[in-house]
Amino acid sequence: MDVPVSYYVVLSGIVFSIGLVGVLIRRNIIIILLSVELMLNATNINFVAFSSYLGNLSGQVFVFFALTVAAAEVAVGLAIIIALYRHSASINIDDFRLLKW
Amino acid sequence: METFVFFYFASIIVVTAGFVVALKNPVYSALALLVMFFHVAGLFVTLHAEFLAIIQILVYAGAILVLYLFVVMLLNLKREEHFHGQFIVGLFLGCVLFAEAVLLVLKGETTLGGNLSASAAPLELTRGNTESIGELLYSTYLFPFEVASLILLVAMVGAVILTKKGILEAKS
Questions:
Q1: How many CB contacts within 8 angstroms connect chain A with chain B?
Q2: Most buried in the list A49, B6, B59, B67, measured by CB within 10 Å?
Q3: What is the DSSP string of chain A?
Q4: Closest residue by Cα to residue B34 from A8, B26, A82, B4
Q5: Using the beta-carbon criterion (under 8 Å), do B101 and A21 form an inter-chain contact?
Q6: Alpha helices in B120-170 (DSSP H)
C-alpha cells in the first residue's frame, strides 16, 4: 500500500465538506438531497479505506448497510419532494417555512 | 503507480463533487454525481473492495440517480433557483469543518500511521471478496441485515403513502 490512509481521510473530509456546504447554500431541494448523497459517499470512502488497511471486512459490510439506508432515504425524500411540489408548485426551500414563525 | 491512480481518482471526485454543488441545472448536477460515483467505484477497486465497487455502480448509478433524474424531469422546473441568502455563512462553516478535519488528521498522523502499519495485514485472497462479505453478512451481521430489509420495506410503504393523492394537498 503506497498511499497512506490519511490521504483517504483527507479526501473524504473534502467531499464531506463540499456536501455540507451544498446542503447549506443551495435553494433547490433536489440539490440538497444530492449533497446528502455526497456526504454519505464520503463516509463510504472512509469505511472502505480503513477496512482495507486494517484487513477487516466489517467496514465493507457497513458500507453495504449505509447504501441500504441511502436508498431508503432517496425513496422517501423524493416522495416528500413530489408531495411538496403538489402542495405549492415549488421546490424552493425558502417557500417552506410552515414550522417557522 | 498506486499513488498516481489515487490522485487521478481523488482529483476527479473532488472536481465533480464541486460541480454537483455549483452547477445551476439539476440535471447537470445529477450527471456530475454520476461521474463521481463511477470514480468512487474505481477507488474501491484499488482498495480491493470489488463487490462494493459493483454495488456502488448498480445501486447508486443504476437506481438512485435514475430516480433523481426522473423526479427532475417530472417536476419540469422553470424558475432559476440558485444560491441561498446564507451563502457566506455556509461557505465559512464548510471551511471550518474541513480545517478541523485536516488538523485532526495531521495531529493523529503519527499514532494513526504507527498503529496501522503494525497491524496492517492484507486481506486474505484465497477466497473472493464477494464470498467473504457474504459469509460475514449471513453470520455476524445477520440481524442488522434483517433490519436493513425492514428499513427498505418501511421506505417503500412511506414513498407510496406520501405520493398518494389527497394526503398533502392544500386545503381549500
A1: 240
A2: A49
A3: --S-HHHHHHHHHHHHHHHHHHHHHB-BHHHHHHHHHHHHHHHHHHHHHHHHHHT-THHHHHHHHHHHHHHHHHHHHHHHHHHHHHHHS--BGGG--TT--
A4: B26
A5: no
A6: 129-139, 142-162
> Which residues does chain B have within 8 Å of residue A37's beta carbon, measured at their own beta carbons?
33, 60, 64
For residues B61 and B16, the answer to whether their CB atoms sit within 8 Å is: no
Give the whole-angstrom CA distance, residue B48 versus residue B43.
Answer: 9
ipTM of the complex: 0.90
Instruction: List, for residues B43-58, the tens digit of each pLDDT value.
Output: 999 988 889 999 999 9
- In a mutational test of the A interface, the residue from B84, B91, B115, B165 whose CB has the highest number of chain A CBs within 10 Å is B84
Query: Would you state the cell numbers that stand for residue A62, as one nine-digit string?
Result: 457497513
From A25, A49, A73, residue closest to B84, measured CB to CB: A25
Dihedrals phi, psi of A92, to nearest 5 degrees = -80, 130
A18-34: b (≥16 Cβ within 10 Å) or e: bbbbbbbbbbbbbbbbb
At residue B83, φ and ψ (nearest 5 deg) are: -85, 155
SS3 B57: helix
Q: Which CATH architecture has domain A5-95?
A: Orthogonal Bundle (1.10)
**What CATH architecture is B1-78?**
Up-down Bundle (1.20)
Cβ-Cβ contacts under 8 Å for B138 (sequence gap 6 or more): B145
Region of poorest pLDDT, from A55-59, B156-160, B162-166: B162-166
